[in-house]
Amino acid sequence: MIETITQLTALRERIAGWRRDGLRVGFVPTMGNLHAGHYSLVTLARQHADKVVSSVFVNPTQFGPNEDFTRYPRTPEADTSGLEAAGCDVLWLPEVEAMYPFGVELASNVHVPGVSAVLEGACRPGHFDGVCTVVTRLFNQVQPDVAAFGKKDFQQLAVIRQLVADLHMPLEILAGDIVREADGLAMSSRNQYLSADERAVAATIHRVLLAMRDAAQRGQARVQVEADADASLRAAGFVPDYAVLRRPDFSVPGDAEAGPQVALIAARLGRTRLIDNLEFDLPG
Ligand code: PAF
Question: What is the pLDDT of residue 183?
Answer without folding.
Answer: 98
